[in-house]
Design brief:
Helix content: 55-70%
Number of strands: 0
Distance between the termini: 102 Å
Shape: elongated
Largest sheet: none
Radius of gyration: 34 Å
Length: 165
């Protein structure tokens, strides 16, 4: 095929198709598939062609090994283990003591710091930011954290207020 610099896509495609026809028999391209898959599907669905369960099982057994090898190759190429992680997934605790430790609230934490702690905890644990199956747990964690922060805020404000007298 001669090299031209000012050819459009349609002309290039036409030249490639003409060359492939001139090359003689070769691998069939998508436009020249000799097998009509839709006709076979119609025949299978019509009931005129039947396939025994044993035949289907045999073909499945033959091809399942190939699929497993392909899946393993994809995992290997991605650098990921195909084996599931046997360690159990630890769900975040909803116990007030654990959440209090996570918040890091001390007896002398200033009110401004409590606001920052609340926002940071919400950023990590808000129900809208977790997986759907963890939303109920996240909601409960947020309620406990807000209760703990509100209590710490009341104590901090009471300690900062001058005594009445």
């Amino acid at each position: 095929m001669p090299m031209h610099t000012n050819r459009d896509f349609a002309t290039l495609l036409k030249d490639l198709l003409a060359e492939s026809e001139n090359d003689g028999p070769g691998p069939a391209g998508p436009a020249t598939v000799p097998f009509d898959y839709l006709a076979v599907a119609d025949e299978l669905l019509s009931g005129r062609i039947t396939v025994s369960d044993e035949t289907v099982a045999a073909v499945y057994r033959e091809t399942s090994g190939e699929v497993d090898e392909t899946v393993e190759a994809l995992f290997e190429a991605a650098g990921v283990s195909a084996e599931p992680d046997p360690s159990p997934v630890e769900l975040p605790s909803v116990e007030p003591e654990a959440i209090s430790r996570e918040l890091g609230i001390k007896g002398n934490t200033p009110v401004a710091a409590l606001a920052h702690i609340r926002r940071a905890f919400a950023f990590r644990n808000h129900p809208d930011r977790v997986a759907p199956h963890l939303r109920q747990r996240a909601l409960l964690r947020m309620q406990v954290a807000n209760m703990l922060i509100d209590d710490a805020r009341r104590r901090a404000l009471a300690a900062a207020r001058p005594p009445r007298g």
